[in-house]
Amino acid sequence: MMTLHSKNILVVLTCLLMTACSTDYENMGKLRSDWAKKQKGDINIVAVSPQRQSNYIKGILLAADEINQQKGKLLGRSLNVQIQVDGNNIDESTPLIRRIISNPKITAVLGHRSSSIAVPASMLYERGQVIFLPPFSTAKKLTGHGFQYVFRMAPSSGIMSRQLASAAKMLGYQNIAILYSRDDLNKEVAFMFENEALRQGVNITKMSSFFEQDDNFRNIIAQLSTEPFDAVFIASGSTPGARMAQQLRDMGVQTPILGTDAFTNANYALTGKEATNSTIVPSIYQAAKKDPITQQFNARYYSKYRELPDYNAAQGYDSVKLLAHAIKLSGSTLTPLISSTLHFMPAWVGVTGLHSYDELGELFGKKYFFQTWREGELHYLPAIHSNYYLERFQSSRKKTVENQSPTDFTDVFSKSMHDDDSKIYMLDLAHDILQFKRLGVILENTIEGKKLADYTLLATLGEQKNIQIVPCEIPFSILSDNEIKKEMLSCYGKLSLSVDVIFLPTKQVVKPSLQHQLNAGLSFFKIPIISLNEKNEDPNVTFVITKRRDVNNASIINFSGLLNNQRVHEFEEKIRGLPDISANLQDLQKMDIPDSSIILISPDTFIQTGVIQ
Q1: Residue 377 covered by a domain
Q2: What are 43's strand-pairing partners?
Q3: In sequence order, what are the residues at sequence separation of 6 or more whose Cβ sits closer than 8 angstroms to the Cβ of residue 130?
Q4: Engineering a disulfide at 56: which of 38, 152, 316, 421 sits with its beta carbon 3.0 to 4.6 angstroms away?
Q5: pLDDT digits (tens, 9 = 90+) for 555-590
């Protein structure tokens, strides 16, 4: 049954279509192309935000400054950002949208925070042939019209709800109550979460809706007590969600709260205060990540603004960098060319993760991490996002040519196992991702040499998965450094002709500086290097897969009060064994290895060639 809100949205969309038909938007698109063909003057984009000084705008301006300070700038031209203040609804925003479209010098629009504005606005930008990158719209409808110029920048509500349900199951929640506000987006998320929770075997005890403008939710909360529950899922804006959290706590509900990405907004904790403690929220950005991409962004942002960036700033920064990357690949500001480039270019890595698009502008590869509110601050919850991506990856795999059944990675990594078994399964997963058939390893042909090279583990993997293990033998113990270097170069040359990947043992007999130098040359041969070393410091290693490196005493304490029927130390052991993947996507692409598996598994971190992690 269509709700009143749905009818209102339909009326707005109909009116916008009528407006679009009565305005010569197609001619505006032609004028835009005519201007772009001149290839002169600044490249103009518009950033739309509720406030001129928002962190989202700060991230955009930082990215634009970096581009303009580069030699050659962007196609030899400066990138000019025009900042515009958004309206509170689509009616208030429509005059601004029309002005933007009417300017043929505008190439792209970044902004319109709310889905209630972004979705109808997308129809007008499409007709005016303006590239549109809305930063926070997760609504399914955004990419549901087959548009050419609209590209999602945040994972959809479907991805969010599936990740939330997967995390809830990992935390041990068997019974969940759902509360959602009566608008299209939050209703969409709530019902998607319900479906996915049921698929995961989680029981939904109660599902109730509310109006965000109400102040008193106690009658709705009272109805939850008919059945016991382990957590409450709330889908709403940050302010009404905070009021709901306060009243839940006032009425004795002390269970954890699951929220949407709206609850990452600082306003949620400011409004709800201590009632927001133990709220679990999805977020697309981790400022505390140790990978070079994140740390470089943090340092540059802090240098400019004297504060650390949040997810708003990261989204603004990535939006500009992604657009600039597409313009550079296109070699033009013609929006049809930029659009085609975004649709079909290889996956791109930003500070918020992977970005890959299909023909509808749907975003793939980017993921949500999880955090929890405690005492007004967000704290990272490690590893609980990874099961969803393991399941997604393995569900996409087909049986091998030999008709062997694929490994159930979600099952094997959920169990305690010996370190050697864990390494074999890690290599098994690496094999499924990179699809290699011949693996090379350099070793000394002695008992100790084979042990240092993990040769027994490699042989076991080879037997199980029909992989050819190709050793190259060097008598390390009797050679000088110069002799070792010559022998290593010889082995790399031989292996590059006969294997698909080279395995780098965790315990190396070669000096790290020499190993780094030698590994740097392997990209020339287009041979990936894989490692199981948790302490890898070689920026030339292409693919690292280990146990979780983010599970430690400092991070595991963040689960206190969030687990159901699980002890923290037992949960730590459970999630510590999950795979933690780092990949050098740029090198993999140069080696002609398809993006598809990397996009599905969505590594947590990315290696940059020449930058030590």
Answers
A1: no
A2: 79
A3: 32, 100, 101, 106, 107, 108, 109, 149, 335
A4: 316
A5: 999 999 999 999 999 999 999 999 999 999 999 999
